[in-house]
Records
---
Amino acid sequence: MNFITSGRDGKNGNFESHAKVKIWAALFWVAVWETAAFLIGQEILLVSPVSVFLKFLELIVTIGYWKSVFFSLCRIAGGFFFALFAGVFFAWISSFNRLAKELAEPLIAVMKASPVASFIILILIWVPSRNLSFIISFLIVLPVIYTNILYGLENTDKGLLEMAEVFRISYPKRVRYIYLPEIAPYLRAACSVSLGLCWKAGIAAEVIGIPSGSIGEKLYEAKVYLETPDLFAWTVSIILFSICFEKIFLFFLDKVIEME
């Protein structure tokens, strides 16, 4: 079983400390990018970071930009939250029902192993392109959440559960004081990983399905018309919104975990 773990305090510990991007390192790679763009001298092949920044400023003051962001954000975030609740729910059932776990294993294995492009093309046959990013985000996030939560539940301290049984502690209190603190680190780690994955998969789905008014449509148009500055500016936008969405969600998740 594949799973992602984190520190017992609900945070990713050393991983996050090493994952923080140093400003000097970022500036170094921006300088490399600028130098490469200058040497190539063909904006169609590689646009300079200055041009990308100016194009980004040009885009963010337009209504169309925010409409596209809102369109994609609602569907990708919706797919993530739906998968989060579904993953926790089915993991909970599988933790005490062996039949449910055995039935879910092949389905989860298929979701984890299948190429995203195959999912996108197959789902596009069944649903309108406007809803494609929602479903793809859901399918990408679900196995990550399910696997991690199930692992956390199965590795809950047996001694605490036995004590709760001896003292006849009610089930709601067991959930509140035993299960939630035990699965919190696994939940946070799973969310941290899946938040980035759902944005990547959701935008890829939009590029293939080309729903009107989406970020994916803007990326596709930039590629077709060789608008390299637009392509990079929209890519920067995706990265920024993905990071902001992840930071905001994890911030509130950490506050909830600290209350436990």
---
Amino acid sequence: MERKIILSADSTCDLGDMLKEKYKVNYYPYHIILGEQQYTDGVDITPEDLYAAYRQKKILPKTAAIGVGEYLAYFKKWVEQGYDVIHLNLGSALSAAYQNCCIAAKELGHVYPIDSSNLSTGTGLLVMEAGERISQGMSAQQIQEEVTQLVPYSHASFILDTLEFMHAGGRCSMVTALGANLLHLKPCIEVDNQRNGSMGVGKKYRGPLDKVLVQYTKDKLKNTPALKKNHIFITHSGISQERIDLVKKTIQEISDFENIYVTRASCTISCHCGPNTLGVLFMTE
């Protein structure tokens, strides 16, 4: 008899409340460190709190990965109740959480970690794939194998309005940030889903953000073959509804996706990219 399955993910998958409920996803939150205080992502701190602390006090938020002991305690209750657990992690190139999760899984048994090699709803899309397979009655091991094979087909990228937060977090140099600001450049940050999920800079756009968001959306959807049309995400770190609607309208003009979801990025994602960041995230066949 197959064991029942619990679906779980790091809080960085950014699915939002509706999809979290639909797929019965359990989240384990990352740690957010702000000054001398430690917070729990999405529980007792918001992205607006991070931005306010940086703007007003120049306090840079930091993040901390989920530890082995935390994963052990988190999974143990389900394993002891006779469940298998599928857990999707933030990409291993971006965090130690996947390695820590694997250590806990090996000790407990019946836990099946998946390295999403991705972030935000790039991971979330894979969580949904796992949820659909659970509903079909697949075993945990088969789900782990099949979803792992889908990792290269989940595409994540974002347009940054400013490099200030990337620079503050040590992810780009002052020269790069200053040059981009002087030239009014807005870089596209892309996740390398063909390798290990590391981030790199793609096309650099110039001009006002509204114009850039439209062109970026067109570039991503028109230049990517074999789009999977069931789901696409607009995920942002805090941006106006008008800009969200503009991107949504652009998506609808290009392709007929069954579902266009809008979700807000977690504190863990937001503290590295700053406000007015937006991405379109989707899968290919």
---
Amino acid sequence: MGTYEMSAEERDWLETYDITEFDRPSVAADMAVFSIMETAGRETPDRKNYRKDPEKCLKLLLIRRGSFPFKNRWALPGGFCRRGESTQETAMRELQAETGVRDAYLRPFAIFSEAGRDPRGWIISHAFLALINGECYRVHEGSDAWEARWFRVDLKKEENDRAIAADCAGITNTYTLYLSDAEDSSVMLTAVIREARRFRNYHETVRYEIVDADGLAFDHASVILCAFLDLRRQAEAGGTIVFDLMPELFTLSELQKAYETVLGRPLLTANFRRKIAPLVTETQEAAAGAGHRPARLFRRNLDAFYC
């Protein structure tokens, strides 16, 4: 923060100011950590076929809480802000503690402050979207977690109602969030969240109501949904965000599959490669371990990322 010179009048005013006259919330940072990883850690029939790339999917990091409230339920990694710490610094500290990652993509996407979201009291959460190459890091449990696992993420959307008038509109959707652990088929979480979008004079407000949390703690079902929708919107807009789910070197096919995984739909290869061409630089290296003709490896075009 820049230097600010207070006047004598302002210093006198501050001496009489009592901040305890106002209720103050606790502030936390929660992280939705996504990665594109192999569907299962164990060998599958596809992995026995050396000519076929392993199937990959979008996964989310969750921790199983080892203390109250919501003991034994699954939650996003996160923690409370320490004195003198920004929420960004809190998120970076907690991410490093859970994954060992220091340089992940980390961006705030929403603030959750609804009354009653935490039984401990008035707690405001600054939610962050984090993207990492999860296959390069080993997650480990924090002080309030029994275990940490990667869950496959799938989403189903159903439109319930749509009413449009001259100066207002209302759209209600129901999202079903499926979180499955490929290593343990007995662990399957299914959350239902209702989205109410209201427009007045073309300006939108959105509210989320958790219909069924099914094993998820706090309001994290809504946080996860908002994080996933934010990630998908940025990928849909042709943004570079998906690159943060990739290793340093990748084939164009791997990059296209990553975009398709986030978007939940296939892309035309010719169109994708034409649009992505300015963002990548071809290297002299080729993919190793393939049974077919090795594909050329690419990396980010730094001139396009730092413009």
